[in-house]
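User: For my dataset I need records formatted as: sequence, then structure tokens, nothing else. Please produce one.
Assistant:
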Amino acid sequence: MGLFVLRRLWVMILTAICLTFVVFFLTNLYPNLEKLAKQQGNQRMTDAQVESWLSNRGYLQAVPVKYGQWLGVLPGYQITGKDGVLRGRCFSAPEDAKTARRFCGVLQGDWGYSTVFKEDVSVIVGKRLWLTGKLMLWVMIVMVPSALIIGVLAGMREGSKTDRSLSTVSIITTATPEYVSGVIFIAIFASSAVGLKWFKGTATSAMDDATFANFTLPVVTIALYGMGYIARMTRASMTEVMTAQYIRTARLKGVAFHNIVLRHALRNALIAPFTVIMLQFPWLLNGVVIVETLFNYKGFGWTLVQAAGNNDIELLLGVSVVSVIVVLITQLISDIGYVYLNPRIRIS
């Protein structure tokens, strides 16, 4: 198991480097840099002025060099511009150049400065990730138990009315995107014009004080979409297990049906859904973009939209790094958990 984890960690590191380099390359294309220069300088800047602005701040260096500086494995740049001002990545004022660190990248904890929010990227990401983490926690609490119960009940007796009814519900929830169900929920349960006005709070207020009134709709909107997928996978796995030979043997021995389900079938049936459940974490982190924007809940997904829409390169890179790390860690946990749940899998 130890060797397996080490190999997976090595693959994770290589994958993270490749993915972050691709994102870094795309965000540092010249049109994006030109837009950034005009945002920070003047919209009427000439091409020569734009090139001078970018050159003085190290943006026109080779992409591998800039990536190494951003990552923190290469020394930060120090450039004296045509205006005679010394600028560098690792210091903000010229008089601090002599005492500044040589390396100041992501590995050293320096994630850059947001041009939109006027704050350190690490601080912004930490705040927004906490808000989305709170949302994800309640979504998982609602989604996972509900999906497993629906899947197990549907798979216990394949082809029954219960199976057909619950499977239909699962398909409908999966086929309905969040932006559709979210708008419907707002119109029915929160609209002051024609709605029932059951939920009078807003998701924005849930950022400071989450209550049943202001947090229910975004949680249910996200949970419904993922719940159907998990329920269908659980139902398929449960159906397959219930037809296995050892289940038939237990039935012939006269074991009670509920004992067969709980003691014999359930653990084996949860192997495939476990992988699907773990894959929900990266989906929740990046897939809440629509819901957070719809309900104006300023979490991680909302921050991603703001960074991309305002060409905030440093913030966009910081959000991308966190997304990559979450995806890779959940994949590792999924692989390890799958091995523990199914001892027949050989690690070679």
